[in-house]
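Notes from hallway chat w/ T.B., transcribed later so I don't forget. T.B. wanted the structure written out for a chain they're using in a teaching module, and asked if we could keep both sequence and structure tokens in one place. Agreed to drop them here.
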Amino acid sequence: MSDSFDLIVIGAGPGGYVCAIRAAQLGMKVACVEKRETLGGTCLNVGCIPSKALLSSSEKYAEAVSHLSDHGVMVGNVTLDMAKMQARKGEVVGANVKGVEFLFKKNKVTWLKGAARILGAGRVDVAGTEYAAKHIVIATGSESAPLPGVEVDEKRIVTSTGALELAQVPGHMVVIGGGVIGLELGSVYKRLGAEVTVVEFLDRLIPGNDGEVAKQFERILTRQGLKFRLSTKVTGAKLDGDQVALTVESLKKGTSETLMADVVLLAIGRRPHTEGLGLAEAGVALDARGRVVTDGHFATNVPGIYAIGDVIAGPMLAHKAEDEGVALAETLAGQKPHINYNAIPGVIYTWPEVASVGQTEEQLKEAGIEYNVGKFPFTANGRARAIGMTDGFVKVLADKKSDLVLGCHIIGPEAGNLIHEMAIAIEFGASSEDIARICHAHPTLSEAVKEAALAVEGRALHI
């Protein structure tokens, strides 16, 4: 036995590294296992952070090409330096992962480098060395879900990992999957000049989000030039010279055809990453979807072994994993933390952004809950007009009897920032009237949230 710890966390993504840091702050002797050469997991290395860097860079390019002239800013011939854009993305990623390494040193968290395998309660093997721990946390995150008949090579047929590393803009990109990852990365390459076609099995985009928002989102993205093939099944993909021949079947028409693409992005979702951890041998139970089964305190069926983040039930969101990491560390320290999963926001970082928190209309109807709706369009918001970004709206859902805020759904500029006011409202049990009576600075985009709250009772002032 090489060394003994109070806590060993397997995985240094947002859930794992935050759990490790919080546990160290609480006085535990902590180690975090990571087999990558850098800390930060999928999110910082090949997910959230690099994708947002490319989204930001591509937005600036598109603004210079198509929108700055609306403001009287004439920039002449705009060119794209893809290598420099990718280099900047790498710098952003590097700064973030080095930041986590600094935080580990600051908080005296030991980084155990290598792949981990759980040998049983209290025992973990890392790269051939066995370590002991009073508590073990599985925080290994998720990986891109495969699709039969579509073999990924990360060059022509790519997951999000390969899509983030393209050296040139493809002439035609076909995105398999109309969810968050596919639409974000599809938006990046559309802005940079690619033709983008999104193939989605369902009859709508962004499943799980508010239906009205999804329809508006599709209309806006269509105006931006993205093409959509909904209710369409991908049946196979094969390399054809420098292109990919993708066979698809219309679920409504029953007809098949072949789409030719320079790059195919497989983005149908993610699955828990548990392979190679020795969970079966250790007796750790998994559910039918391959997720680690936990109780309300993140404990597995094996005493002393816990799990958080993408490997357990719930939305696969970095911030959800972070909150779980903090809550688990505090629980192990004897505290009694709390997570309100209904108050966890979700954001799609396209332009415009889409953000939501709480329940959707569809969920409320299914649950038989009576509610009122308040909506306010950004076309009626002074700041949105001033910045020239008037697509979208704010929708507030409130209980018909109590006026308690049940959900909020925003499509529009800065939606990812605006949603947090409503996350606080849900967390602290506010009513739509509470939001409506808070003075919001003018002129700001946040006034649209206030107006939507006013509209719940039919008293919006600017529509």
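Follow-up for T.B.: The domain at 157-268 is CATH 3.50.50.60 (FAD/NAD(P)-binding domain). Might be a good example for the class.
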